[in-house]
Specification:
- There is one protein chain.
- This protein is an alpha+beta fold and about 110 residues long.
- The chain has a single domain, classed as Nuclear Transport Factor 2, Chain: A.
- About 20% of the residues lie in helices and about 40% in strands.
- A four-stranded antiparallel β-sheet has the order 1-2-3-4, with no helix packed on it.
């Protein structure tokens, strides 16, 4: 526990090839817990000849835990069984068009 940051309560790492996923429970100044999920990917810079780590971080706050957990469970069940979840995120074309979400930056 000595290596944890000041506001970090718990940390778990999952190694997956060149990627490592970190699940870190942290606290706000008012002692509310939240979760950060970090993807760290080892890459090579051909110009410098050195390796570096590219990181992407998500912050998940307490008020969204239940929705996040339900959505994650639903998509994991779909992957494993093919069963479409009852609570589809975008259930109509009009909701899809009015959304602010843009997934263009996720292409890699």
């Amino acid at each position: 526990m000595e290596n944890l940051e000041k506001n970090e309560v718990l940390s778990r790492a999952v190694r997956a090839g060149k990627r490592t996923y970190f699940f870190d429970v942290k606290t706000t100044k008012s002692e509310e817990k939240y979760l950060t999920i970090t993807e760290s990917k080892r890459k090579f810079n051909a110009e410098s000849g050195n390796f570096f780590y590219e990181k992407h971080k998500l912050f998940l706050y307490k008020e969204d835990f239940e929705k996040f957990k339900n959505a994650l469970s639903g998509v994991l069940e779909f992957i494993e069984t093919g069963k479409i979840p009852d609570d589809i995120l975008f259930d109509t074309e009009s909701q899809r068009e009015s959304s602010d979400l843009s997934f263009e930056d996720l292409q890699s």
